[in-house]
Amino acid sequence: MTDIFDEVELLTVTYKSEYIINRCLSNINENFKITIVENSNDIYFKEKLEQRKNTKCILTGKNLGFGSAFNIGAKSIKKKYILHFNPDAMINDEIIHEMYKLAKNVKFGIISVIESNEGTKVILSDKVKLRKVESVKGFVMFIDNYECMETNYFDENFFLYFEEIDLCKRLQQKGKNIYIAENIFVKHLGGKSHDPDQKEKMEVQRNWHYLWSLFYFSKKHKGIFHAYKITLRKFISAFFKLIFYYFINRKKHTIYKIRFLGLLNSYLGNKSFFRID
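Above: the chain sequence. Below: its structure as tokens.
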């Protein structure tokens, strides 16, 4: 008879997350196998993490973004279920067991949880508390590995943003439901997955990729005319603001310049190449 340790493997993607990942791992039973995909070539980080029982760390060699790194980890996992969590999502054994229990009673593609600023908890109930939704936030996802395998997991053209919404859409197109477990609350620190020293660099990177991904996602699912319709005003606004702020606020100038360039590159059909390491 199979049990949770036979059917569930945990997966997280990190990028210079040493200061936060151990806090999360300390709440997880060491009998769970965990795959950590680190978006760098930090061998010291890998060796330190693998001192933990049942923990494997894969180094990508460079920052590939979330989707590509997740796919590397997922393709190495043979178990039926993958529980993905961000390094700053405070999951624990109770959360894992409750999500597994829900998963055994419903056909699904992805089950996620309620994002909480207060604390991680499960509200016990005799009724299944699953709400069907169009998409979920990617900070915690209980995934049917075999179903997602058929979609080739995440679209690796995305570096940041919209990749989980895209995956949810593709799963639904194959008849797989997406759910939120309304009785499970997970504390999400939000934006704390990386080293605090990287905050300004990550802010610049996010601005570039948000607008690149917005156009790409919209074009992929609703067509190029819709994509231009929802982004053209942002493109024009970013252009004029980068000029306006050039003389009075260099930081804002940089942000609007980055937004303009991200969207411009998406318009031109260029890949999401922008990286800050």
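The two ends are 46 Å apart (CA to CA).
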